[in-house]
Amino acid sequence: MSDGETSIVRRREVRGTGDAQAARVNDSGLQSQYQPYKDAAWGFINHWYPALFSEELPDDAVEGIQICGIPIVLRRVDGKIFALKDQCVHRGVRLSAKPTCFTKDSISCWYHGFTFDLNDGKLSTIVANPDDPLIGTTGLTTYPVEEVAGMIFVFVREDDYPLDDVPPVSEDLPFRFPENSERFPHPLWPAAPSVLDEHAVTKGMHRTGFGDWRIACENGFDNAHILVHKDNSIVNALNWTLPLGILPTAEDCIEVIEDDDAPKGMMQWLFTDKWAPVLENEKLGLKVEGVNGRFYRTSVVLPGVLMVENWPEEHVVQYEWYVPITNDTHEYWEVLVKICPTEEDRKAYDYRYKTFYKPLALNGFNDCDIYAREAMQDFYADGSGWDDEQLVSTDVSPITWRKLASRWNRGIAKAPRGVEGKIPTTSLRMRRTAEGVPPGYKVQKIEE
Amino acid sequence: MDDGAQVLFAFADGVERSVTVKSNETILDAGLAADLPLLFQCKSGSCSSCIAKLIEGETRQAAGHTTLLRSEYEAGLRLLCQCEAVGNCRLELGYDSEAGSVRATKAKAFVDEVEKIASNVVRLRLELAADNWVDFRSGQFFQLTVPGVGAIRSYSPATTPRELPMLEFLIRLLPGGVMSQWLTDQATPDDIIDIEGAFGAFFLREKVRAPHILIAGGTGLAPMLSIVDELRAQSGRKPPVLLSFGCTDPDALFGLDAIKLRQQWMPGLTARISVDNGATGDLLSGNPVDAVLAEDVSDPNTVAYLCGPSRMIDAAFARLEALGVNPDNIFAEQFVSSSETGSNP
Ligand code: FES
Ligand code: FES
Ligand SMILES: [Fe+2]
Q1: What ipTM score was computed for the predicted complex, to two decimals?
Q2: Do B235 and A158 touch (CB under 8 A)?
Q3: Is the CATH number 3.40.50.80 carried by domain B212-336?
Q4: How many CB atoms lie within 10 A of CB B208?
Q5: Which of A19, A31, A26, A70 is nearest to A47 (CA)?
Q6: What is the pTM of this model?
């Protein structure tokens, strides 16, 4: 090497050895089938996600959230909701941090007064610079919004995803019954309600999960994790006896649904002869007698929406979302749906929710899923877990999901630019955490 | 009257630029002198990078040769490095005003893997060295300098810019070829190779909603795999894609796993694999051009990308035109004849 010339060196990046041994189910051949899923740390973009419960955004309110690395500001005006990218084109400030609105059809940045049209996101004026040539030439991405049964859904899109290509929200929501009752019979329970049904009422909560959204999502329909729940109070309270686990007995234990113009996902044939309960482990001296639990069935559709039919009780269904915020945080939604045509029905449902569903199911039962997910996070956080995990036959569920998600997602979110959480260790984030406000889903509003 | 002719360049994205061309200079030189983002490479009439379509006015063939077919010339196609303006004219370019902004750069890369994947094809995986970078669009090619020999060969990556700093090339082995010799006898991981690029006007036109037909012969598959991956990553509803790939015989086939994977990832991707001889199972007997059927061209806006030997390109042009594809929507990258350089494209 001649003087003055810099030496040619390798990039110092740790790369996997890529030699997944053959004994495990997920050898390197199988892994490549779901490579797009492995690339989706920031989530699947160009999908409908829940943003807020309706009651979280009263008239005239402004709220800031973040989904798939995209900050989004929501404003409700005369009942109608608008959603824009929450990142001022001027210097990147989040409009929602200190909501400033001078008219019904605009939102202004509180910093230097850049003002955006709520309908098309265009920079419509600048408070103290109304003749600037930039006006009208730039703007913020807008996001389609739908409000259904007390929930606000936002279509989180790439800046250049055409509005004409936005599918109806029903394509990103769970399978419906009784429309699918013949295809997916459920002799042991009544048809599950849907959030899209008339008189549907949703009740539930959302909270930030500290981990990869995919880990959370896969936990939702992981049939091998009954063990985690064996001592939950709901199990004791209702005198359930759960099997040690369930094992697939047939090739077609899961059905993949790929219909045109309809949700894409998979249905698990639970409580049929395609899955068998495991009642004994001789080596450990474990034996379960008189199994007695709830009949339920799990299915999942893109972009990662779980449905648990017949849960926690008859005529109720549980939906879950694991909405990516960053590549290591997600908003965990637990939502129950029930059809309540009368005021009386609503009251009864509300009472049951407060006294039973919320404490025992959404908290008691699912809290335990949350710590299980957190316990997995370190293994996957640097990406190596996806290469090193050693999957077994019960993991047919996550594997099927990964493959179908690789095929039917409408886009893989790219690591964002200039967004909270892109650099997880900014001093501001650490200060907030030290002050008791950990990274989360909603914008931290400026208080004066 | 030599104050020159006014030449108007119309880029595909609607941008128009006008330049004065003197009587003794080529249109390409005048355009480049005015800093227009024109694509070019050899400046000698052989690579076709500088192709444009004459809409109005007249040009004159400068000294040198042209690889344009007579029919192409009659259809108004011109190689800008080979023509002078006779009077004012208007030329249409098939690429955006930003396309030329992918400027060729030189870089060093490390060999990661050399694997023989068919009777006469090697897959070469490279990783750009630290502090080295290149830019390209799916379909464009790079020049690789054969280590120790210094000869230059051109190949299109099978990967997309998203995989950078990784680059993957599919290289046809030719008896006695210097690149072939290096690959089979010497190349080992951690070797350093010089590359330069990207070059070429053959690249995916983005955001076209019409059906795409991709026809690849032999290692012409490489840019097609890159194009398929790029289409998959494009936002918005994906166009239907037909990939027709062919080789001489089953032993010469490669990349089938890669194609199958992409079919799994892309519901809208159809693949047809042909061999001239010895077809069995799902393989079609014949060439990848014949495998394209009338019903594949149901949309008049269908676009096609072709990469392979010149005979295949000619046949594909003829067939696609006959099936109703607008010739303006056909983009081709031809292998330079193997006796000359032994490279693709
Ligand atoms: S940062 Fe928004 S107006 Fe300046
Ligand atoms: S520059 Fe190569 S043909 Fe004109
Ligand atoms: Fe659970």
Answers
A1: 0.83
A2: yes
A3: yes
A4: 15
A5: A70
A6: 0.83
